[in-house]
Please model this.
Amino acid sequence: MRTLFSGGTLVGPEGTLQADLLVDGERIAAIGRDLPRGDVRVIDAAGRYLLPGGIDVHTHLDMPLDDIASTDDFRTGHVAAAFGGTTSHIDFVIQSKDGSLRQALDAWHALAQGKACIDYGFHMTIADPRPDVLDEIAHLPEWGITTVKVLMAYKGRLQLDDAQLLAVMRRAAEHGLLTMVHCENGDVIDVLEREAVAAGHREPKYHAMARPPELEGEATGRAIAIASVAGAPLYVVHLTCEAALDQVRAAQRRGRHVWAETCIQYLFFTAADLDRPDFEGAKVVCSPPFRTPQDQAALWEGLRDGALAVVSTDHCPFNFAREKQRGRHDFTKIPNGVPAIEDRLLMLHHAGVNGGRIPLSRFVELTATNPARLFGLYPRKGILEVGSDGDIVLWDPRARRTITAGTHHMRVDYNLFEGTTVTGAPAGVWVRGTQVVDGERFTGRAGAGQFLRRAAFTS
Model:
């Protein structure tokens, strides 16, 4: 299959180029003006942008949590991602206590088998770094995984202590892996949560009060310090607040290999949203929690000036009418997570590009190019170049779309951005040269998505 995109404006991290683009099979074969047509399918791209397919490097599809799981699996989550212009993502494999990394990876491969519609990779979350598990880290690159994640929160379940963090970071650095860290002080959070519940403070708003930004800032600084001692590159996940961003900026000024992401939802919601009436605040319970307008302003500034490298989603949906109700009388029992995989590009383009906060080139850099560079996918993904995969979003900057749970494709009963009308949306989406979205029609196929074996980390 040969597809010629005619007369569009290609967008990359360096700017824009008006040109034709030819995809032959799965790869981009040519870019130039007035490319010969011949035996090709022609897509009229005049007046529209050609973007590299979005890459979401922080998702939790079909993630087990006690006796439930996040509601989007590798089919519904992929369909939703595609409609939002995301053509690749990286999900988190979670090692179980007493289990091995290989067992966990096999379980996640089984979750994706026969369902994947877009391309996907895996990070490895290490929850029990026993000596034999630390030895397994050496095998991750041969299994296609070049990132590990550790958590400084969720005491008694996923949290590692500082000595364990150091051990994982050292071993990861030794084998060319990037360490990702969830930065919150889980020990103090555990105390604050127990105190709140004992005092009868059980509404969703206390979720944010028990996880104050000072604890995220402290943990971010501590993670940076431990990574520095370990000689390990560090990627801070879902950064939410000015206190944590200040730590990242300071490390970057010192020349440390530290990068950070924020998630799309942190740009639009604050802790006040957790105090919505009728338990509606449970819909926006995630960790770290939403912060203040001042923190939002700091995040936008970090996106503008490069202190923040990536916008992801931490997509982890649970239904309000069912799973979220588990915490109606105790906020600590509300499943943490929000749905966002479908709306990341729509909301960032609308508020960022249309809102004059970031240029279109930076939008592409934050959602595609930087994720590809940091996570071993560049230049196969994240850029429109000859030889790159034909992951293409035909973006109509004039299209208007109202975001609503009534029409979204995520398998969850509410939408964070309900009723928001955005300008700018995908008109078509291609994964490795095959069209998977055509307007309002999904044309992809379950099982067509490929596992992405990623290259070793390079700074």
